[in-house]
Amino acid sequence: MSKRDLYELLNQMTLPEKVAQLTQLATPFFKGSSKQGEITGPMAAMQITDEDIPNIGSVLGASGAEEIRSIQKQHLAESRLGIPLLFMSDVVHGFKTIFPIPLAIGCSWNPALAEESARVAAKESAVSGIHVTFAPMVDLVRDPRWGRVMETTGEDPYLNGVFAKAQVRGFQGDHLKESKEHVAACVKHFAAYGAAEGGRDYNTVNMSDRQLQEMYLPAYKAALDEDCKMVMSSFNIVDGIPATANQTLMNGLLRGDWDFDGVMISDWGAVKELIPHGVAADKKDAARKALSAGTDIEMMTDCYASHLEELVAEGVIDEQTIDQSVLRILQLKEELGLFENPYRGADPVQEEQIIMSAPHREAAKQLAIESSVLLKNDQTLPLQKSQKVALIGPFADNGDILGQWSWQGSKEDAITLRQGLVNKLQEEPLLAVGSDISEINATSLEQALTVAQQADVLIVALGEHSTMSGEAGSLTNIQLPQAQLDLLQSLAELDKPIVSILFNGRPLDLHGVIEHSHAIIEAWFPGTEGGNALADLLYGDENFSGKLTMSFPNSVGQIPVYYNHYNTGRPKGAPDAQVRYVSQYLDSPNGPLFPFGFGLSYTTFAYQEPVLSTDQLTSDRTLNLTVKVKNTGNWTGTETVQLYLRDLVGEVVRPVKELKDFKQVKLLPGEEQEIHFTLTEEQLRYYHSDMSYSSDPGDFEVLVGPNSQETVNTFFTLI
Ligand code: NOJ
Fold first, then answer.
1. Which atom of ligand 1 is nearest to the CA of 61?
2. Per-residue model confidence as pLDDT tens digits over 134-156
3. How far is the CA of 405 from the centre of ligand 1 (A)?
4. Active site residue 267
5. Which CATH class is domain 357-538?
6. pLDDT category, 35, cuts 50, 70, 90?
């Protein structure tokens, strides 16, 4: 359909038909649905009538080729103008083949693999009938109390942008209309949802425009630069106004400055939530404010459906505003080829072959390998097959390793750690649960100790239940539950080597784990192939290369703790610093327990001093940096070489360091390679006091290293 055809279609639509396009409802509302669709948020009582349903624009949470074909068929039979439904779902890190959670994907520092994971997720969801995924989630995060840190790639604006692009490419491919294997992406949650005060989900966000522009917005922009088709507004306020009704954010920035003309959808119920936020008097007022701000689709409440017609009749809303939103939705349907083929990829026969196919599981395994982070290793790992192993803990044989956003994933399909070890060793390990996630009793502890006594080495599988993170999964205590700490302490008294493997969705406070473990693996929620991936890593058939993309705090009292913070006027550790009157805690270090970028390997790498092609950079001449990195250990390993910059004197205060680039290199034992980076003037730009974005002549420090703390450095000048 040409643009003109779309206009013609629009002209044939009545106002009620147009308004219904702007409403999204969950599966149970639709005829042809055989089962109750998955509900991922509160269901408000809605004044949606039977007459509205045939005109509704989109469906939330349906899946399955048969199911979706049946809903679409019924819908087209009843829709006067034959406008197909759009099916949207949360395919966040895999559809049925579940990949590691996004925070883990970030730790792979491998955007190509992240792209592949999104491609696989798209392929599986498209064949199951889905058209749009509510992903990527790119919110920058600094507070591990917030359960949704699991859904994002971490604390760095640049890295989040790199992964945002990779995921959009993977989901959408290059030819959305022709390809039935891709889905449209919806970047979320616009904007700054990750900055909820106190880490409490849905809470207030309060930040300066400078922080917003510099830290929080770049990843959304990166997704849109990759032609991401949709944007979801966030629940929170941005400078005092909920995002969903925020003119400055939506019409001003998103549609204005960024020129986004795709579809904007509210988050679940966020239009109606303008009322409790206190910026709308009632549903009618909420409808007016959200639509005027540019929110095209209202998800799961009926403010639009119940009040937009009235608002047009009263002259409060211009019908053209509604037309614009409808046109954007029709345009997306057109871009997905739905007018030609409303069933698109939905194919029950192919569904059987494609979903959870061997290559998909293989990709999930590879990402699980690359996203696990080795946090500690007192030469306990890798294990030898000759060692007698006892596998203990609530995650020893637990399929709850998919994470909270694994909607279609099944725990029964997940390779548990026990199964992974059996696949590797061809025999059952000694096994005991020891404790539940949050409860321990004398009998189970006794069993664990008995089993442990028979072993040479203990693998202790600990973690959080998947519902302890994710949406509405905020915590104030981010240590492992006491029951598991008690189990670990009792095991430690046996004086055997302990390898702790952590399955969880957030950076944890690891006190109680670190002192009792000889090795610690942060496995996150590693997805369907988790057990196989971990078995390969434990026995050295694969090496660790994952590095943290979110700092692990020393304690909850330090939060937020993140690497790209500002300096203070009284920095701790400065050469002339006083003992007391510096910016510090009396009872804790300032820095994290494990910093951004940190992760060990079975081998070691040595960095030489970086060398610059010249120490002067100009706006029209780049500068090359070379650093030699050598594998100084006995294992082949992949190193992520990270490059950070510091602006020594800015017009406004600048972060102590900012990640600007990274390269992965695989080195054989003893092998050395030169790693090259190009520095440009563009990388030195920032928001000035008048919010202009430019660089200033002056001196810069460039730091290169294996993580954000251990770096080698040199200096250059921008002239
Ligand atoms: C609410 C969540 O915040 C959002 O991420 C999700 O896409 C929607 N629910 C739809 O399930």
1. 11
2. 999 999 999 999 999 999 999 99
3. 10
4. yes
5. alpha beta
6. low
Domain with CATH 3.40.50.1700 in the chain: 357-538
Q: Which residues, judged by CB distance below 6 Å to any ligand atom, belong to the binding site of ligand 1?
A: 40-41, 90, 134, 188, 267-268, 471
C-alpha–C-alpha distance, residues 547 and 551, integer Å: 10
Contacts within 8 Å (CB) and 24+ apart, 479-484: 479/508, 479/509, 479/510, 479/511, 479/512, 480/504, 480/508, 480/512, 480/513, 481/437, 481/438, 482/438, 483/435, 483/436, 483/437, 483/438, 483/439, 483/440, 484/393, 484/394, 484/435, 484/437, 484/440
Q: Which residue out of 90, 267, 285, 296 is catalytically annotated?
A: 267
514 Cα: distance to centroid of ligand 1 (angstroms): 35
Residue 219: in which H helix or E strand, if any? helix 218-225
Which tens digits make up the pLDDT trace of 569-617? 999 988 888 889 999 999 999 999 999 999 999 999 999 999 999 999 9
160 C-alpha to ligand 1 centroid (Å): 19
pLDDT value at residue 42:
65
Instruction: Please give the number of the atom of ligand 1 that sits closest to the Cα of 193.
Output: 3
DSSP letters along 34-99, please?
A: -SPPP--S--------TTTGGG--EEES---HHHHHHHHHHHHHH-TT-PPPEEEE--SS-SSSPP
pTM value?
Answer: 0.98
d(CA 618, CA 425): 58
Closest ligand 1 atom to the C-alpha of 186?
7
Neighbours of 627 (CB within 10 A): 22
> Which residues lie below 8 Å from residue 681, measured CB to CB, with a gap of 6+?
617, 618, 619, 695, 718
Top mutation candidate among 87, 90, 171, 186 for ligand 1, by most atoms within 8 Å of CB: 90
Which conformational region is residue 265 in: left (phi greater than 0), alpha (psi within -120 to 50 degrees), or beta? beta
Q: Which CATH class is domain 603-718?
A: mainly beta
CA 189–ligand 1 middle distance (angstroms): 9
Calculate how far, in angstroms, residue 584's C-alpha sits from the geometric centre of ligand 1: 38
Residue having the nearest C-alpha atom to atom 1 of ligand 1: 268
Instruction: Give per-residue burial for 213-233: e unless 16+ CB within 10 Å, then b.
Output: bbbbbbbbbbbbebebbbbbb
Domain with CATH 2.60.40.10 in the chain: 603-718
pLDDT 10s digits, 485-497: 999 999 999 999 9
Measuring from atom 4 of ligand 1, which residue has the nearest CA? 267
State how far the Cα of 473 lies from the Cα of 88, in Å rounded to an integer. 23
Using most ligand atoms within 8 A of CB, pick from 59, 88, 151, 188 the residue to mutate for ligand 1. 188
Q: Which numbered atom of ligand 1 lies nearest the CA of 151? A: 5
Give the Cα separation of 666 and 600 in Å (integer). Answer: 14
- CA-nearest residue, atom 3 of ligand 1: 267
Looking at the DSSP bridge assignments, the partners of residue 459 are: 391, 499
Cα-to-centroid distance, 87 and ligand 1 (Å): 14
**Cα-based distances in Å from 664 to 154, 163, 370:** 18, 15, 12
For residue 580, the number of C-alpha atoms closer than 13 Å in the C-beta half-sphere is 0
Q: Which atom of ligand 1 is nearest to the CA of 134?
A: 7
